[in-house]
């Protein structure tokens, strides 16, 4: 059943595996451990490393004025899984026909989250841009699980597309 030789083999196997592991660890540390042993032999001089290029913020109204409705239609495909463009026809989300300028949480027959239902004001292009950038930040507690549109141009294009549907 379980004799001395079996025990010796098992203990030897465990010790051998531990030895291989420790030797591998030691070799990896020697290869990848960076330690400074004095001054660098060659120093690369960098000019202007202190200056950081400033990012120019563009006004949303300026971006919206040059928005492309065709590109907005393409970006809207991400939204079309949950939203419909037919007046009164809701999907997982409320219909978006006439969204620009409409009161927040005002689509009849749609059960809004408490956060959006309690919001005041209209869906102006600026409000829509803030919501589309990251819905969970704009309206904490919203049931909309979309992560958002990071590019301001994409948001402007979608808003221009939605606004063009009612004109």
UniProtKB/TrEMBL annotation:
UniProt KW keywords: Cell membrane, Electron transport, Heme, Iron, Membrane, Metal-binding, Transmembrane, Transmembrane helix, Transport
Example of a GO cellular component annotation carried by this entry: plasma membrane
Locations listed in the record: Cell membrane
Membrane topology: Single-pass membrane protein
GO MF assignments: electron transfer activity; heme binding; metal ion binding
Keyword Electron transport on entry: yes
Domain of life where this protein originates: Bacteria
InterPro entries reported for this sequence: Cyt_c-like_dom, Cyt_c_1A/1B
Domain Cytochrome c residues, every copy: 67-166
Record has Electron transport as a keyword: yes
Name the record gives this protein: Cytochrome c family protein
Species assigned in the record: Roseobacter insulae
UniProt lineage: Bacteria, Pseudomonadati, Pseudomonadota, Alphaproteobacteria, Rhodobacterales
């Amino acid at each position: 059943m379980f004799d001395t030789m079996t025990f010796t083999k098992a203990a030897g196997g465990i010790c051998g595996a531990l030895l291989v592991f420790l030797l591998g660890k030691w070799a990896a540390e020697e290869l990848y451990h960076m330690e400074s042993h004095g001054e660098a032999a060659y120093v690369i001089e960098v000019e202007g490393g202190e200056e950081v290029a400033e990012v120019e913020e563009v006004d949303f109204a300026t971006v919206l004025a040059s928005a492309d409705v065709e590109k907005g239609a393409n970006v809207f495909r991400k939204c079309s899984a949950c939203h419909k463009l037919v007046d009164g026809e809701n999907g997982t989300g409320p219909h978006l026909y006439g969204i620009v300028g409409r009161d927040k949480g005002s689509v009849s027959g749609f059960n809004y989250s408490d956060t959006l239902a309690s919001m005041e004001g209209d869906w102006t292009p600026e409000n829509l841009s803030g919501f589309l950038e990251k819905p969970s930040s704009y309206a904490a507690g919203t049931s909309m699980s979309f992560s958002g549109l990071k590019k301001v141009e994409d948001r402007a294009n979608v808003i221009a597309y939605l606004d063009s549907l009612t004109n």
